[in-house]
């Protein structure tokens, strides 16, 4: 589903940031450098702090770095960059996916940054920022295989897919025979062994694999027209905060920061 959203008014977002900056500089008695007005402006859980829910176990989006144990990842660094633009501290609350929306509803955090896909069903309940991740479905083949260049070419071919994924449905709709696998790792292994002709998966999964396994001799043969977009998710009373986040994301995109973070974690700009 290709989806567009009009960027909310620059003046409104700028006014919100200016108001926050005034609060941050006006109360020298506050340890965080901000007053309760900052919380009033955006309805923050804690004035002067952007409280962000993320899993912390979802590589490469939100995970703990080997060695240091620091919380890192694409979503983590995007959230940090947005908070910096807004003049806010950032605090992450690691939460299991199954409980993450319940925690948002309960007011435990301000936003979710965990590759939350924008769907019509979720838009009925939540507000979303502008997307900071855009992805497509891709057909992955062994390097140099010219027998597949479109989804139509999957007719009669064998693909490796998880039977519970949307990609399984797409493969069968394209006329492919499906070899059942548990996930990407098994699928790509069967592909490289020549036991299947292709596998369909998310573009981000493919890019992450190439970024960590640059010598892998696989390539994208085709991609879907429809995109999947992920964004910050917020409760419906956070309109002012959404406006400010959208303005921050627009600046980060213009400055090339989102592209740099995409290159760091995926070897490509995945923000648009």
Automatic annotation (TrEMBL):
Domain spans labelled Solute-binding protein family 3/N-terminal: 49-269
SMART domains, sorted: PBPb, PBPe
Keywords attached to this entry: Signal
Annotated Ionotropic glutamate receptor C-terminal domain residues: 49-268
InterPro entries: Iontro_rcpt_C, SBP_3_CS, Solute-binding_3/MltF_N
Subcellular location(s) of the protein: Cell envelope
Source organism, top-level taxon: Bacteria
Signal peptide (UniProt feature, chain positions): 1-21
Protein family: Belongs to the bacterial solute-binding protein 3 family.
Annotated protein name in UniProt: Amino acid ABC transporter substrate-binding protein
């Amino acid at each position: 589903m290709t989806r567009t959203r009009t960027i909310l008014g620059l003046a409104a977002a700028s006014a919100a940031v200016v108001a926050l900056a005034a609060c941050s500089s006006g109360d020298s008695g506050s340890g965080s450098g901000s007053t309760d007005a900052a919380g009033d402006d955006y309805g923050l859980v804690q004035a002067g702090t952007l409280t962000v829910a993320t899993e912390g176990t979802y590589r490469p989006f939100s995970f703990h770095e080997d060695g240091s144990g620091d919380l890192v990842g694409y979503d983590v660094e995007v959230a940090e960059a947005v908070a910096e633009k807004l003049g806010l501290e950032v605090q992450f609350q690691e939460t299991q996916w199954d409980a993450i929306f319940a925690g948002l509803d309960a007011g435990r955090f301000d936003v979710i940054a965990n590759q939350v896909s924008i769907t019509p069903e979720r838009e009925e309940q939540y507000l979303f920022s502008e997307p900071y991740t855009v992805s497509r479905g891709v057909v992955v083949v062994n390097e140099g295989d010219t027998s597949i260049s479109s989804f139509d070419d999957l007719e009669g071919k064998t693909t490796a897919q998880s039977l519970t994924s949307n990609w399984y449905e797409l493969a069968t709709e394209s006329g492919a025979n499906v070899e059942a696998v548990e996930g990407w790792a098994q699928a790509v292994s069967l592909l490289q062994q020549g036991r299947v002709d292709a596998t369909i998966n998310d573009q981000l999964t493919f890019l992450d694999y190439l970024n960590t396994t640059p010598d892998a001799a696989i390539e994208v043969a085709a991609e879907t027209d429809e995109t999947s977009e992920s964004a910050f998710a917020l409760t419906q009373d956070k309109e002012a905060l959404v406006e400010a986040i959208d303005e921050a994301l627009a600046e980060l995109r213009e400055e090339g920061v989102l592209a740099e973070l995409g290159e760091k974690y995926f070897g490509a700009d995945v923000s648009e």
